[in-house]
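so my prof wants the structure for this chain in the tokens format not the other one, which i didnt know existed until like an hour ago. anyway here's the sequence
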Amino acid sequence: MVKIRLRRIGKKKAPFYRIVVADARTSMQSNTLAEIGTYDPLKEPAEVKINEEEARKWIANGAQPTETVARLFKNAGITK
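here's what i got, hopefully its the right format
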């Protein structure tokens, strides 16, 4: 199963995330299939950049977003 999830790349006490597409059986830091966006929760308001075309393509191909990514997609208007 393919998942769309967050991958933390920020340093200690300064989180920054990439929104990536990866096999659900692999670890969080392993190779990913695609990088489709970024999420910076420290900015006010939180800064989210998503390649909507890529996100919709992966969802149409059966990729399942995690709860947090699904919320980000809903706020961005990608899913309902």
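also thought this was worth mentioning. The chain has two helices and five strands.
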